[in-house]
């Protein structure tokens, strides 16, 4: 059996005191850069592993605040499930996570909740911004107070947030553009049904999609981008009206969840096989629609992983001073009728 390397072993190997090793491993003051580098190199050489659980019990508890939309579509409950999984994992690490959910996509309520979290006292904040720019000042206020902010599923890219966890929304739009142009044989009229047009995620998907569509200016016509706020009735009514007014419509790109209500409108009009539908993410309710060929493709954005990873990154920032780039992308998957079985549990 390989003997576990202890702090005492590491101190002896580096010819320093146990206290000096502790300062190096925990990024404390009172140690030179040269000595710290020597100890960290020796730790790596010996295969020393920090006991994060024991270490966490010696510091004060950390509190992470989390804000996400509370609307009933199937995307955010999956994000929340990932957050809960991270919460359960971090319990042993002396970390508590508090979640607040807004009514629908309400950035004003998010701002209210952020201010409440500041009053309550948090060490880190994870948030799905409901507006691309109107939350910048409050996010910047949080960061300027020394509290790191991680966004997930959507973004406030011009704010001081640390990083954003999610798929590359612009690239998602490009992928849908490639699929759609092939599905409609590079000609015809198409529509975009979006959720909340003020959200970065929605905006970038539309931009990416349009970049591809605009390369067919003489054969593909976008009849409009229609906002629904992810409300089931608005989605149903909007799709029904669009198809009634454009009977030769060839395709619809849903940029947000709840696309099944648009599919129901197509079925009621007898247009479910004439209009090609592409939508994000996978839920149980969608399965019969893709099995029956009504939904032609799903861009799976792995919402569970987005929620889990956002919390885990915040924990790493708070406990290890690890740095992250402006985006931490999760690779999307394209789900079609004949590979659906690999994504159903």
TrEMBL record:
<dbReference type="GO" id="GO:0030246">
    <property type="term" value="F:carbohydrate binding"/>
</dbReference>
<dbReference type="Pfam" id="PF13407">
    <property type="entry name" value="Peripla_BP_4"/>
</dbReference>
<dbReference type="InterPro" id="IPR028082">
    <property type="entry name" value="Peripla_BP_I"/>
</dbReference>
<dbReference type="InterPro" id="IPR000843">
    <property type="entry name" value="HTH_LacI"/>
</dbReference>
<dbReference type="GO" id="GO:0030288">
    <property type="term" value="C:outer membrane-bounded periplasmic space"/>
</dbReference>
<comment type="similarity">
    <text>Belongs to the bacterial solute-binding protein 2 family.</text>
</comment>
<dbReference type="Pfam" id="PF00356">
    <property type="entry name" value="LacI"/>
</dbReference>
<feature type="domain" description="HTH lacI-type">
    <location>
        <begin position="5"/>
        <end position="59"/>
    </location>
</feature>
<dbReference type="InterPro" id="IPR025997">
    <property type="entry name" value="SBP_2_dom"/>
</dbReference>
<dbReference type="GO" id="GO:0003677">
    <property type="term" value="F:DNA binding"/>
</dbReference>
<dbReference type="GO" id="GO:0006355">
    <property type="term" value="P:regulation of DNA-templated transcription"/>
</dbReference>
<protein>
    <submittedName>
        <fullName>LacI family transcriptional regulator</fullName>
    </submittedName>
</protein>
<dbReference type="InterPro" id="IPR010982">
    <property type="entry name" value="Lambda_DNA-bd_dom_sf"/>
</dbReference>
<dbReference type="InterPro" id="IPR050555">
    <property type="entry name" value="Bact_Solute-Bind_Prot2"/>
</dbReference>
């Amino acid at each position: 059996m390989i003997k576990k390397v202890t702090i005492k072993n590491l101190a002896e190997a580096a010819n320093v005191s146990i206290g000096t090793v502790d300062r190096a491993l925990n990024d404390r003051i009172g140690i030179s850069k040269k000595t710290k580098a020597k100890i960290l190199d020796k730790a790596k050489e010996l295969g020393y592993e920090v006991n994060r659980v024991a270490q966490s019990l010696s510091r004060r508890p950390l509190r992470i605040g989390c804000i996400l939309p509370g609307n009933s579509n199937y995307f955010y409950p999956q994000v929340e499930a990932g957050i809960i999984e991270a919460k359960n994992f971090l319990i042993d690490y002396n970390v508590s996570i508090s979640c607040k959910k807004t009514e629908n996509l309400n950035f004003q309520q998010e701002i209210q909740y952020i201010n409440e979290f500041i009053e309550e006292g948090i060490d880190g904040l994870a948030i799905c911004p409901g507006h691309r720019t109107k939350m910048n000042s409050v996010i910047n206020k949080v960061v300027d107070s020394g509290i790191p902010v991680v966004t997930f599923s959507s973004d406030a890219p011009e704010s001081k947030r640390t990083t954003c966890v999610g798929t590359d929304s612009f690239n998602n739009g490009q992928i849908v553009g490639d699929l759609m142009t092939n599905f409609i044989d590079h000609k015809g009229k198409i529509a975009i049904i979006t959720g909340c047009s003020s959200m970065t995620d929605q905006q970038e998907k539309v931009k990416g999609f349009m970049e591809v569509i605009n390369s067919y200016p003489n054969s593909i016509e976008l009849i409009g981008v229609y906002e629904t706020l992810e409300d089931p009735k608005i989605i149903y009514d909007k799709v029904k009206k669009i198809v009634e007014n454009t009977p030769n419509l060839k395709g619809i790109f849903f940029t947000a969840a709840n696309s099944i209500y648009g599919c129901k409108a197509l079925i009621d009009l007898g247009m479910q096989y004439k209009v090609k539908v592409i939508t994000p993410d996978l839920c149980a309710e969608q399965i019969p629609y893709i099995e029956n060929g009504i939904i032609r493709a799903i861009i799976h954005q792995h919402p569970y992983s987005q929620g889990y990873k956002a919390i885990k990154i915040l924990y790493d920032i708070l406990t290890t001073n690890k740095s992250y780039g402006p985006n931490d992308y999760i690779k999307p998957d394209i789900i079609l009728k004949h590979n659906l079985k690999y994504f159903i549990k």
